[in-house]
Amino acid sequence: MASARWFSPVSLGLVVLGGAVGVAARAALIVPLDGTHPLVVPAVTLAINLLGSLLLGVIVGWLDDRHARWRVLLGTGVMGGFTTYSAFAVQAVSTFTAAPVVGLALMVVSLFGGVLAAAAGLLVGRRIADVPGEIEPLGDAE
User: Fold this and answer.
1) For a surface tag, which of 6, 21, 31, 42 has the fewest beta carbons within 10 Å of its beta carbon?
2) Other CB atoms closer than 10 Å to residue 21's CB: what's the count?
3) Burial per residue of 97-120, b for 16 or more beta-carbon CB atoms within 10 angstroms, e otherwise
4) CA of 63: how far to CAs of 16, 81, 111, in Å?
C-alpha cells in the first residue's frame, strides 16, 4: 500500500491562486471603508466571515472528496483568503477596548454565527450534491 503524498505542487499552486482571489475580494469590500465610522470595518469583517463560513460549508458539502482540486482551490484558497481570523481577532480586541459590550457581541456573533453558517452551508452543499443528511466530520473541513 502506497502512502499518500503530503505535498503537492499543484495543490499548493491552487491554494495560492485561490487565496489571491479571496484576498482581493475581501480587500475590494474593506479598503474603500477606510476612514469611515470605527464600527463599519468590524461589521463588514463580520459579514465577510459569516458569508465565508456559509460558502465554505457549501463548497465542502457539495464537492466532498469527489473533486479534490476544486475543493482546494475554492475552499482552502478562495474562502481561506476571503475570510480572516487575524482581522477578526484584532478588530474584536480593538472594539472591546473601545466599547466592551459591542466588542463582546462581535466575538459571540462571529464565533457562533460562523459555526451556524458553516452547518447551514454543509446542508445546502449536501443537497446540491444530493447526499442528504450527511455532515462531514469537522476535521475533514478545510
Assistant:
1) 6
2) 16
3) eeeeebbeebbeebeebbeebbee
4) 19, 19, 24
| Residue recorded with cell 463582546 | 104
Confidence band, pLDDT 50/70/90 cuts, at residue 89: very high
Whole-number Å distance between alpha carbons of 80 and 142: 8
User: How much is the pLDDT for 139?
Assistant: 55
Cα separation, 114 vs 14, whole angstroms: 25
User: Cell 462531514 appears where?
Assistant: 136
Helix segments in 64-99, DSSP class H: 68-71, 80-82, 85-98
Contact 39, 105 (CB under 8 A): no
- pTM recorded for the entire structure: 0.84
Amino acid, res. 26: R
Instruction: Evaluate whether 121 touches 61 at the Cβ level (below 8 Å).
Output: yes
Report whether pLDDT(39) > 70: yes
Residue with cell 478588530: 91
Query: Which amino acid, residue 17?
Result: L
Tell me how many degrees the CA angle 61-64-69 measures, rounded to the nearest 5: 125
d(CA 115, CA 110) in angstroms, rounded, equals: 8
DSSP symbol at 33: G
